């Protein structure tokens, strides 16, 4: 069993920044970790993913604004979000891809509003 706990969400004005953090209850070093988001009335979508090799990929809508990083020693994955836009408003979820299944965190709300 894996537990993922997200933190760092909140309300910010357009153009502002937030840093989300995902703490895992077991080692993340061998696994792909990702951040996803779900806005009201929309499907959950990939925001950013980081593989065990350190390679990353991002949704086109966040490229150049968001940065995903991992600290394998602390079992933590962060998402630095800059230049936030109202359309970034959503619940953000952390995901760990294991060989046999995936685990999700409970989510953290990010609201971008003036």
What's the gist of this structure?
The chain is mainly beta. Helix content is 0%, strand content 51%.
Description:
Strand 5 and strand 6 form a beta hairpin. The chain contains no helices and 11 strands. It has 114 residues and is mostly beta strands. The model has no long low-confidence stretch (mean pLDDT 97).
Write a concise keyword list for the protein shown above:
single chain, 114 residues, mainly beta, four-stranded antiparallel beta sheet, 51% strand, globular
Topology pattern, helix = H, strand = E: EEEEEEEEEEE
Number of helical elements: 0
Report Rg.
Answer: 13 Å
Shape: globular
Uncertain spans: none
Tell me the distance between the termini: 40 Å
The mean pLDDT is: 97
Total number of strands: 11
Alpha-beta classification: mainly beta
Largest sheet: 7 strands, mixed
Percent range for helical residues?
under 10%
How much of the residues is beta strand, in percent? over 45%
């Amino acid at each position: 069993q894996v537990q993922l706990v997200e933190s760092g969400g909140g309300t910010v004005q357009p153009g502002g920044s937030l840093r989300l953090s995902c703490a895992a209850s077991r080692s993340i070093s061998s696994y792909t970790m990702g951040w996803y988001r779900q806005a009201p009335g929309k499907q959950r979508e990939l925001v950013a993913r980081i593989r065990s090799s350190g390679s990353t990929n991002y949704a086109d809508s966040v490229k150049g604004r968001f940065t995903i990083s991992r600290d394998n020693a602390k079992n933590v994955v962060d998402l630095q979000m800059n230049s936030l836009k109202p359309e970034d408003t959503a619940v953000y979820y952390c995901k760990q891809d294991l060989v046999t299944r995936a685990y999700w965190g409970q989510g953290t709300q990010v609201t971008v509003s003036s």
